[in-house]
Amino acid sequence: MALTTFVFVVLSLILFGQSLFSIYLMVYSWEQPERLAASSGPQSFLPPRLSFSVLLPARHEEKVIFETIRSVVESDYPKSLLEVVVICHEDDAATIYEARRAMRDLGATNVHLETFACGPISKPHGLNVGFQRTSGDVITIFDAEDDIDSSIFNVVNTVMQEEEVGIVQAGVQLMNFRDHWFGIHNVLEYYFWFKSRLHYYAGVGVVPLAGNTVFVRADLLNRVGGWDDYCLTEDADIGIRLSALGEPIRVVYDSQHVTREETPESVGALIRQRTRWHQGFLQVLRKKTWRELPTVGQRLLAFFTLSQPLFQALLTLLWPLSIAAGLWLKLPMSLTMASFLPLYALAFQFLITMVGAFSFTGEYRERVPLLLPITMLVTFLPYQWILGLSSVRAVYRELRRETDWEKTTHVGAHRRVGEMVTPAGTLSPVSQSVDRSR
Fold first, then answer.
1. Which of 301, 279, 312 is nearest to 389 (CA)?
2. Which of 95, 289, 307, 326 lies 20 to 30 Å (CA to CA) from residue 231?
3. How many Å apart are CA 23 and CA 378, to the nearest integer?
4. What pTM value is reported for the model?
5. Rg (Cα) of the chain, in Å, rounded?
């Protein structure tokens, strides 16, 4: 019994430390005002010089691909410096039809359609197929449902020239927080990730890149050999490999220039999406390419980040044990309190999340629902249980080597969010239209 109690308390302390560091990452950018200022994009743009090749991988995205192509084609950047490669598996007739319709109706001569039949039907394989057909200086990735800001290419063209960086991760933001009970929590995860956490990673030199709105010089992609066809988080994987080259990665997040996306359409879709992400992190952890990072600190941060699914799965399994220990085991009060430390950290995380909700709605000029604080309080733990269940499921699938791609369905819900007005503090309207026909 003594050994079991000791192990239990040690695990609680480890998980408590991990939780505290995660909380620090959530508020990192707000700790010093200059960090927030540094995270934003430029206020004025240099003349267009770099050419961009946009990769648009799509699988059963016939409901959203037309408007995504439109938002890229109609962006404020010279067409002579912008090409778009839409990538589909040859059996996806509906998406191929919509892509061709967009090319025809928009008169988009700089848009090309690439289909493939060989290899795995996965996003990274599609990216590798599309990459072979590009000619731009910079390779850009957008997802099939993305609404982009019309100035995003000017932003990156300016940042890459002024700061002499070859990799830029721009912001991505979920928008439809009213559509589902879990929506506000899902939206705020993105908000804290792109507005705060990624800036800490960039400062250390270890950035697990996001799946889209990432810009990489073509020669750097060639150096690392493109994407891993079989990795479920090809973005994080290639981000770690690019970081191992010693290449600085600039993260840009401001409400004017974010790419807007939608939350998953159901709890089941959310669980499948998070399972894929968690398992992908475990795949990258198992590949051990993070060991090639130059410094010990970078390797420790990479290990901490990639092993998060293990910590989250363990914390999920520890919850009922903590409650049982407090109720039935006759432990000293100090040990009982120690066993609940991860739960205390979770309560503090909720308070920060609540503050983040008001920060997000203020920044995007969204009306705050009257009952938002109450609904967030009621749904916070269920949302954490969903994330925990996804982690447990990811660990289980990874142990069984189940690597089939559980795709997230997109319906364009973010394109129906209220009146998409200019975010607070910006200079010009965002490019997205509020009434987009299908």
1. 312
2. 95
3. 20
4. 0.88
5. 22
